[in-house]
Structures are given as structure tokens and as C-alpha cells.
Amino acid sequence: MTTKISMDAVISHGNDAPLDREILARPTAGPGQVLVRIKASGVNPLDLKIRSGKAPHAKHPLPAVLGMDLAGTVEAVGDDVIAFAPGDEVYGLTGGIGGLQGSLAEFAAVDADLLAPKPANLTMREAAALPLVFITAWEGLVDRARVREGQKSPGSGSRRCWPNGYPDRPGL
């Protein structure tokens, strides 16, 4: 049996240049990493901003494999990884920024702390659509609106999110 040591990936070569499909060396799982065979990945507005050079907060040297969200199957684990084993279905975030390989490829070596077991009731596509969207929602609610445990949200049927009005507008 022959082990495939290369992979297909989608590469961005420069600002607003067309994305190209290329064959790259397959990564390996280093210490603390999980090698994921990617079954689904997402393209987010941030990916498009990076590709067009309009994301100074998320610099990424080009050419590069972009993409952050993924879902797939564990192929191998690096040293010190005990949370996952080959064959596990996972979802989470990979690089795509800061010089780390993104998820628009067949495989990615991902920090184990950025992965979670894929819920059995979600498809790979559904799971791959969640990570960055969830983080964005969390930042909006917890970091910016300062929603805390015990508070009700507008979607829960309450008239107010906060008992004493909005944090930045008391009395509302």
C-alpha cells in the first residue's frame, strides 16, 4: 500500500488574484498537533479580506492556503495529544492567518486545543460552518455587550437583556 505524501490545496498567490488548485506536500502532526483529513471547510469574509490585502490585523504572507474553519477526520496525532485518536471526527479552527496553513486543503496539521469532537447530529458541512461564526457571536455577546451568566437574551422572550438596562445605556 502506498501512502499519499502530497495533497491538493487551494492557493492564493496575491491580492485579488484568482485562487489556484495546486499539489503541495502533506503536513505532518507535530507536538500538540492533530493531522486532520479535511472533509469540509468554510470561506469567511476575513479570508476574502486577507486575500485582497485588506486585513492588516490578520497578516498572512502570500502565496498561502487560506481558510480557518474545518471539519474532518483525525489521521494522526502528534506527541502529547491525548484528546484525539485516528478516526475521530472533529471540527474547529486551523491557521489561515499569521503564516499558518489554512483549511482550503485536503489535510492540515492543527493545534489540538483548537479542535473539538464533531457533534454526531451535525454533518461535516454544518460543523465546518460553526467555528469562526461562533467566536464572532461570543465576542459580540460576552466581550462587547458583557452578557453574563444568569442574564436573559432578547431571543429568550425577555423584555430586557439586563435587569438595569443596557450596560452602556442605563434605563433602556
From TrEMBL:
Residues 14-164 form the Enoyl reductase (ER) domain. Residues 148-172 are annotated as: Disordered. The keyword Zinc-finger does not apply. Signal peptide: none annotated. Keywords: NADP. The keyword NADP applies. This is NADPH:quinone reductase-like Zn-dependent oxidoreductase.
